[in-house]
Amino acid sequence: MNNKVGCIFTVRFRYYDLRENKTKTKKRPFLIIKEENSTYPIDLTVLPVSSVTNRNRLNLYYDIEINKNTYPSLNLNRDISYIRTNKVQTINEKDLISKDVDAKVNGA
């Protein structure tokens, strides 16, 4: 098993578009926090990394701010992004598109 925990991946993310009344996909970054089983394809527990354009939707307790200048190795697209710790999701390994960065600190 290739340990993906602590890495940020771009993921094919499914969502329901209310305006078009159908399921669509988009690319989103996610921080992987757990691998659920050991045989391919595995399920992954992940946290979304988001710019949160509407600041009223921020949760100061759960949303962890990450600054592009403070963490340049994360290759963030926006100056400020957030790890949304209250938005835990499960995805399948098949939906991983690319590894953006190994976010582990000192190999932890």
What features would you describe in this structure?
This protein is mainly β and 108 residues long. It has a single domain, classed as SH3 type barrels (Roll). 0% of the residues lie in helices and 50% in strands. It has no helices and 7 strands. Strands 1, 2, 3, 4, 5, 6 and 7 form a 7-stranded antiparallel sheet that branches. A hairpin with a 7-residue loop joins strand 2 and strand 3. The two termini are 17 Å apart. The model has no long low-confidence stretch (mean pLDDT 87).
CATH class category: Mainly Beta
Poorly predicted residue ranges: none
- Give the SSE string: EEEEEEE
Overall CATH architecture: Roll
- Give the % helix: under 10%
Give a quick precis of the structure:
The protein is mainly beta and 108 residues long. It contains no helices and seven strands.
Topology, pairings included?
Elements lengths: L6 E11 L4 E14 L7 E8 L12 E5 L12 E5 L4 E4 L3 E7 L6
Antiparallel strand pairs: 1-2, 1-7, 2-3, 3-5, 3-6, 4-5
